[in-house]
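Forgive a beginner's question, but would it be possible to get a protein, spelled out as residues, together with the matching structure tokens, please?
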Amino acid sequence: MTRVLVVDDDPALLRALRIGLEARGFEVTVAQTGAEGLSRAAQGMPHLVVLDLGLPDIDGVEVCRRLRQWTDVPVIVLSALDSEDRKVLALDSGADDYVTKPFGMQELEARLRVALRHAAARDPSAAPAALTVGPIHVDVASRVVKVGGTPMELTAREFDLLAYLARNAGKVCTHRTILREVWGPGYGNETHYLRVYASRLRRKLGDEGGPLLRTNPGVGYQLVDERPTQSPGAGGGGSRSPGDGGRELPGGGGEAPGHGSGGEAPGHGGGGEPLGGGGEPLGGGGEAPGHGGGGEPLGGGGHPPGPNWGPPEP
């Protein structure tokens, strides 16, 4: 049975999560403080940790950092609507994903399944020579990318970015982490580089709507292995609605390095509203309406690069 440790200082939320998760086949342990959570994690060796950021003794981000000193257990953080900076900090500190309060049990269970799937796929002994995410196949050794069996021509930097996201498929990778790992330790704030390269990758991969390479506005990017089901009335021609994360803005054409097209439109990058668990959403602190993630935040920040500009290739 999959063991889940839930760390939160709200007794009502702990009780609801225990009932909901146990009904779905999980073995649940709870803790109300950061210190208790760290102790239970060391003793019980859970398969997953659900961690609230607002704990009374030790900050949730610090709890995440301490866990990462000795375990790779997937960590999903719970955060409030107005804590975007805290979510980014938690992801940079080792968290795998986040859920915004209030949320539904179906959304949380789906994120737990994804975290477990990707944790099981990780091989700590060596990096895989080939990676497959949905229709995308990345041969790391030969630096060849195929989509649906068709080879794609990518620049060196585009390949490095795609390979990094594929190695972390399903995980939300923050802007700072991507820049540091792909561009180098001297980078961290050049988010306009990422907008250009994400736009190029989407165009080349035939993913201009953004169902595979998703934008988490103000946070980072996520490569997913499943295309979401299109809602009724969506799809087809016409303009894209705000929030699909894949719209390209006017920009220079061509594929030469340093001549990327446009940036990305603000969007939310992660699907639509959560399906409730048959009742009130969890984590809302009372009778708040059950919308899983609040309104659409503005994403990315800044203006897209001009038509003749592009970040440097190595």
